[in-house]
Amino acid sequence: MTDQNNHCAAQTGALPEEYCLEICSNGVESSLAAEEAGATRVELCASLYEGGTSPSFGVIKCCREVLRHTRLNVMIRPRGGDFLCSEHDLKCMAYEIESARDLGADGLVFGCLTADGDIDLKALEFLMERAGTTEVTFHRAFDLVRDPKTALEQLIEHGVCRLLTSGLRPKAVQGMEMIAALNAQSAGRIKIMAGSGVSPDNIMELAVKTGIREFHFSAKVPRPSDMRYRPEEDIMSGSYYIDEYDREVSSFGMIKAALEVIKGLAGRTHRQTEGKTMLTLN
Question: Would you say which domain of life the source belongs to (predicted)?
Answer without folding.
Answer: Bacteria
